[in-house]
Design brief:
With 84 residues, this protein is mainly β. It is built from no helices and seven strands. Strands 4-3-6-7 form a four-stranded antiparallel sheet, with no helix packed on it. The radius of gyration is 12 Å and the shape is globular.
Length: 84
């Protein structure tokens, strides 16, 4: 199986996506960050192996965003991301 956690959330400067993979096989993985309109503002490539991915807010305004984990083009997990 696999798991995805994000901390801190809410965040002001950067946050960390922690991806844990215990043998789940996929070819392409990515975390997408979306705004409230559902537009993808950022994409983070995810490898097959467990790891931490630092996400810096960059030009994002304060507000509510969403993230989703896609493995082989299928959304398998998602959640809310708050920039303060």
């Amino acid at each position: 199986g696999f798991a995805l956690a994000v901390s801190p959330n809410p965040f002001s400067d950067q946050t960390v996506f922690s991806f844990t993979n215990d043998g789940y096989d996929f070819k392409k993985g990515e975390i997408e960050i979306l705004n409230e309109l559902g537009e993808v503002t950022s994409t983070i490539a995810v490898s097959k192996y467990s790891g931490n991915y630092v996400y810096k807010k960059g030009m994002l305004a304060k507000g509510i965003y969403f993230y989703r984990l896609k493995l082989d083009e299928k959304v398998v997990k998602g959640g809310k991301l708050v920039v303060e």
